[in-house]
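In practice, a research group might receive sequence data for several interacting partners and want a quick structural hypothesis before committing to experiments. The following worked case mirrors that situation: the sequences arrive first, and a predicted assembly follows.
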Amino acid sequence: MNDQRLVKLYGVIGGTGLENDLDLRVDRSAAGGTCAGFSSAANVYTGLLSDLGADYANGASSLVPLTTSETVAYEFTVTLDPNTDTAEQGNTATADFFWEVRTA
Amino acid sequence: MRVVAEPSDPTLAWSPPDPGTELPGSDPVPEARASVRELIARFAALFWTFSIVWFTFFALVPALVGWAPTVVTSGSMEPSVGAGTVVHIDDGVDLQTVGPGAIITYRDPAIAEMRVTHRVVQAITDDNGTVVGFRTKGDANTTIDSMAVPIEDVEGVARLVLPYAGMPKLWAENGNWLVLGSFVVITALAGVVALDTLYGFVTGSTMSRRRGRGSAIALVLALALGAPSSEAVLAAATDDSRNDFEMSSSWYLDSIDRDTPVAHWRLDDVGTPATTVFTDDFEAFAGYNTYGAGNFVSSNAQARSGTRSGLKTGNNDPNGGWKLLPSVVNGSFEFEVWVYRPSGFLGGSIDRLGLEDATFNGYTFNVDHNGNSMSIDRRTAGSPTRIGTRVGFNPPEDAWYRLELVKTGSFMTLSAYDGGGTLLVSTTATDSTNNSFDRLAIHGGWDYYVDDLEVRQIAGSETVAVDRIGTLDGSYIGNPTVGEPSLLTNVSSTSVAFDGAGDGVLLADSPVVNGTTRDARTAELWFSADTLTGRQVLYEEGGGTNGLNIYLDGNTLYGRAWSGSTGWSNDLQVTATATAATVTHVAVVLDATGARSLTMYVNGVAVGTSTKTDAAAWNAHSDDGAIGRVNGGTEFHDGNSSTAFPFAGRVDEVVLFNSALGAQRIANHYRAGA
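A structural hypothesis for the assembly, expressed as tokens:
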């Protein structure tokens, strides 16, 4: 599949260690989906928050191309890793999420 | 438009009207209207055609001076550069001079075969100040592009921007054939009319319709399809709002409270308020004795308050001094003193004060100004042995600082504060060797000064086990030791130690907990058993007919629930194997909402479930409850009993819920404290 026309997700992730204990899952709805009654049509990303790519080249994609004027919804689910140590109490994480699409 | 159709020449033609000549059969007024319409049409055609030629000229001619045109097909640079704009790129610009604001075209770092035309927002330089790349941004984007552009990927800097000149190419690439076709037809017609008009002006005659059409179409095709080709790029980024996450500093309590407990005995009870036993500001110096070859004297060289202080001088530890306290301090205490250590030590560098008994057994702190550390010492016949954790600490010198040693049960905390009351460092130790103290002891190196000293007695055991959720406070029975180290990790709390001889916490009947018929209960606690001998009750509620309990029998851990009043007894039971002197989290979950089940979790993992298909509620179960022993009666695996069966060991964080918590919640409770 041509890499172009894909919507990619990447992020600028920071923190004091909690970013390594947060699991992130991002799902994409089918065309026309909304946040209300969200239904996943494709998975965009599953993994540690800290492992999310930091730029377009390393971004995550559902591998479903974007079509003109298409509207989709994305669901972000962040969970604390079950193996998190209590020493992580008080730690923080920050995340700026970016969407980017390129067409030719 | 006025059209003159000559039968012999079907070519569209226009001739300037001769005001003195009237065409045969014509009506002068309609003829004048037709002339105006034709004039407007021919001017429109000329305008259209000249515009096309003008754009084409500027789209193509700059290439003659080495500028490369590229058609922008995205809106990421709007409004300055819209889709369909032709941008001429000059590849002869010295990129070292390019800075923010310039529009550059470059090979996309993400997709090699694509080219992007975006504005420079930052030039990236190396340590020598040489530009090695750029950060770019589309004017319409909210964020800068995620990937930096290496300078070698830059193809040139924008020199000339021609809006709309590349629209035919954009239509062609996007497959807008209807629009493109309409454009071609209109342009062809306009071109024919325009050429015909020009031809008429120049020659006074009309050109052939075929020649005119052919020339116009050729012009349009050249413009639409033969225009300089370039990759089109759309780069759009959206910046979501900043997402901040913070892990609670009270994870355990947050986890518990999320499930709405009905009772929670943290067992952090530390006794009645401390009472002052002894203070000394050293303004009046009396009652101090020497220990060994040391000396402890009054001094006016330094004073935190008043004019005098006590001075430890002479020989090193354990030599020093001591003074009898007005009354004996038993078990738990608070000892607070201000210390001044001059820099440039005369002798040893360690400050050591504390409480001891008649044979100089006790506890003193150890603040090392040379080794820069702090710890707690146990004193045996005056000799120190370090216990607990030795922490790094560069103590103040030539300044007063405060030390506080707090002993609760066998758990000790030593904290150092600066003159402003800010905590500098603290350390802990656990030791139960010494529990009675009748004197203040001054040891350590020399010289150092002490002032404003205070000793407070903390009650050795508590009478009330506070319920932090409701009003079901428990009553300590026997002589349990409060203030023991927490059984949880990184949780600020203490535990209570039961001696196995009858210690425990008695819980009265409560409609919130056991006085009402219910269909669910979750009971959980942390424990560490000293031994696994005999039967030891950790928790029980109810009596021999209806109730629930958690207990040890040898090394078998039992969780049980029964409700004889509603027809079920001695049939819900789960067991697991216990280990002595090991911190263990146990949770028992009764669910009698339908088919009855009892599940026991050990360290967050289900170890077994006992189920019955007959449905019946869990009857109200009076006959009190207890932590660490039986209160009234209970039902064991081998029958009812009202024997106490006291537990020997430590218990912490006993929590009750009037709901059947799931496996994930129990695992979370364990993880938050493990």
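Before designing any experiment, note the following. Residues 1-26, 207-212, 218-236 of chain B have pLDDT under 50 and may be disordered. The interface with chain A takes residues 73-74, 108-111, 114, 143, 145-147, 231-240, 242-252, 488-491, 667, 671-674 of chain B (CB under 8 Å).
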